[in-house]
Amino acid sequence: MKILFFGDVMGRRSRTALLEQMAHIKGQTAADVVIVDADNAAHGYGLTPKVAADMLKKIDVLTIGDHTWDHENLREFIKAEPRLVRPANWHKFPEGSGASVIKVGKKKLLVISLLGTLFMHRDKIDNPFETVQEILKDYKLGKNVDAIFVDFHAETTSEKVSLANFLDGKITALIGSHTHIPTCDERILPAGTAFQTDAGMCGDFDSSIGMDKGVSMRRFMNMPKEPLRPAEGDPTLNGTLVEVLPNGLAKSIKRVRFGKNLNAN
Length: 265
Known about the structure:
This protein is α/β, with parallel strands linked by helices. The protein has 6 helices and 13 strands. It has helices spanning about 10-30, 50-55, 75-80, 130-135, 155-165, 215-220; strands at about 1-5, 35, 60-65, 85, 100-105, 105-115, 145-155, 175, 185-190, 195, 200-205, 235-245, 250-260. Strands 1, 2, 3, 4, 11, 12 and 13 form a 7-stranded mixed β-sheet that branches. The chain has a 6-stranded mixed β-sheet with strand order 5-6-7-8-10-9, covered by helices on one side. A hairpin with a 2-residue loop joins strand 5 and strand 6 (about 105-115).
């Protein structure tokens, strides 16, 4: 099995580019399943039912992070859609699931979404280490699932590395999201789990982490605040490809990039 994960999708232009290129991307990577973090897919903030439904026509699984509930009308949609996975440790919102088993051909893939605690909504978030430990009591690699993928939506590198090491040998891969900048530390940990601190974003790199750079600069200069909005240049699509061994651990991990910017492929 090959699992392809794309980091945070920044607004309409980026999600359109991703969907339009999906057939080409699958052909280039030979991915069996595509997971996309859609935390910023609806104009840079969260996800709406319409955007989610459109994305799920061509994408197998969507994860979402700290902007899960930016659009209240997502609550009913997420109840009925197991392919939209919200953070498992956001305890005040019972709608939806933070761990979902997806069929990939004849195999089963468990997708888990988790939020970090540092610089996040601490009063709303349970400890991700304890949450994932509880989930994994019911799921074991090579027994009732063939692979386990964790999207860890978190601010700090230290928290992401720590959770990856905590789960090493118990899951197939933990890939970070949320910071929008792709890291070059992809590797397989000693016990066989693939890890990368952040997959990066699907967005315009001539920007401030996907938002209009002029608006962002003016906010830092304490000028009258304007609403942040996604940049409108050509998006670069950043992701990570993980190949799975028969025992459910990782055989390989590789960064992938599609688009016009940064000498992308």
